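Changelog note: in this version the structure field was regenerated for every chain. One regenerated record is shown below for reference.
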Amino acid sequence: MRHNKKFNHLGRKKAHRDALLANMAKSLITHKRIFTTLAKAKALRVYVEPLINRAKEDSTNSRRVVFSYLQDKAVVTELFQEVSKKIADRPGGYTRILKTGFRLGDNAAMAMIELVDYNENMLKEKAGKKATRTRRSKKAAAPAAEAPAAEATSAE
């Protein structure tokens, strides 16, 4: 029985799939953002998030475990020195997948996967926008705010 063995094989054998995900993980750590198909992005998230979580604790064992997956000293060093500092206080969810449309050739769903703390544009928007919760929309509130001001000028 194959209970609880459901994951995307990506049309590849295990060795090919492992090599593909390792190469994509190296590219993601190096470039902080990559464009790929949606299926590969979702598979990559499952592959790379435990490695990033392992990088929070900089020990010899952690480095060896991550190196066994990635097989690249430069990428492991960057993961443990740069990336781990940015994600130190984050409890999980180190990657973000944004759908970018469909590929022209075969109409495959495309996506961008990125490390969350490295997107400066979204960090600026998050810092600039204050979280307010109202029941009324801003359009309905705007005429109501203008009406008392108009009454005050006409009363004088």
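Spot check on this record: The mean pLDDT is 88. The chain has six helices and three strands.
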